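Input.
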Amino acid sequence: REGWFAEKEVLWPGQRLALQVEEVLFEGRSALQDVLVFRSSTYGTVLALDGVIQLTERDEFAYQEMITHLPLFAHPAPRRVLII
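Output.
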């Protein structure tokens, strides 16, 4: 449908997510994959690689939280932390 992004069914056959696109922020190809960044009306900014959504502004906190646990628990006394 016009104005919509629908994932490719590569990870979960028979299932895919479709989001309404407000604005395409970037569309291109890296050396390894197709890259699409767009603004969705319900999920905010969305990153899709090779037609599969990787993360969205709406649910990014879940990814950020998970990637911080290992380094924070591995350090005996973290005071200032930058995770990139």
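The first helix runs from residue 60 to 74.
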